[in-house]
């Protein structure tokens, strides 16, 4: 004999446990770009060709970006960050998910910059060539761009769910595009730097210090929370699609 909880009658719907799926997307978006960054630098170290001449940079494909990076490198992540702040303002729903707001991310980047400058000062006590300052700064720029890429993807997915305005959605897409472009340019520039301009030892020290001093902060305080928000947004997007199809 079945119990009363096994059937449905008038006014009662049979409730079945809702099956949930685990989406490893949050782990992928956290780990994959960082692995690409580290492998790029390691490959550059493996292709090291000794000290470059003063004219080497003139024929490198990313010499134009290197010139920008030398002068305003620490400010480059502000481009996607500012675009994300604008997208959040245009959507009018900046607090609709548990992702990292643009203002809080900016504070994290500023804190990482203070740590970076402190490491610069400490490394200077051991000489000008204790490490590759180019690679070290590059790790900070790359991790900030990585964070904005994940946060931008989370924002874009949410906007698709709530059917946000065209301007807000396009702005969120621009955040993703800008961030991925910056990540790619930084990987390429640092790859050439590891090949031509610093010894493998200097590059490795910068890679490790960048991971511990800058990337770890950004990963823990921005990238991981943004990845969790992205995973929730993807689930909501799939459920919205399934409800329309069903």
TrEMBL record:
Keyword terms of this UniProt record: Membrane, Transmembrane, Transmembrane helix
Highest taxon in the source lineage: Eukaryota
Protein name (database record): Uncharacterized protein
Entry's transmembrane regions: 28-48, 68-93, 105-123, 135-157, 164-185, 205-237
């Amino acid at each position: 004999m079945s119990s009363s909880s096994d059937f449905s009658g008038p006014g009662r719907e049979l409730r079945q446990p809702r099956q949930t799926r685990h989406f490893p997307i949050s782990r992928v978006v956290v780990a994959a770009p960082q692995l690409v960054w580290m492998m790029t630098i390691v490959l550059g170290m493996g292709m090291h060709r000794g000290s470059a001449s003063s004219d080497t940079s003139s024929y490198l494909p990313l010499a134009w970006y290197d010139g920008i990076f030398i002068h305003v490198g620490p400010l480059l992540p502000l481009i996607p960050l500012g675009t994300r702040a604008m997208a959040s303002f245009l959507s009018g729903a900046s607090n609709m998910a548990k992702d990292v707001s643009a203002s809080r991310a900016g504070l994290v980047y500023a804190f990482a910059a203070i740590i970076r400058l402190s490491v610069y000062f400490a490394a200077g006590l051991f000489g000008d060539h204790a490490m590759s300052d180019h690679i070290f700064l590059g790790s900070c720029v790359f991790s900030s761009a990585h964070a904005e890429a994940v946060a931008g993807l989370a924002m874009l997915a949410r906007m698709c769910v709530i059917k946000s305005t065209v301007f807000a959605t396009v702005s969120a897409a621009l955040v993703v595009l800008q961030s991925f472009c910056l990540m790619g340019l930084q990987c390429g520039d640092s790859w050439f730097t590891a090949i031509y301009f610093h010894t493998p030892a200097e590059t490795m020290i910068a890679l490790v210090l960048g991971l511990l001093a800058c990337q770890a902060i950004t990963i823990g305080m921005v990238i991981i929370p943004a990845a969790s928000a992205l995973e929730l947004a993807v689930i909501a997007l799939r459920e919205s699609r399934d409800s329309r199809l069903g």
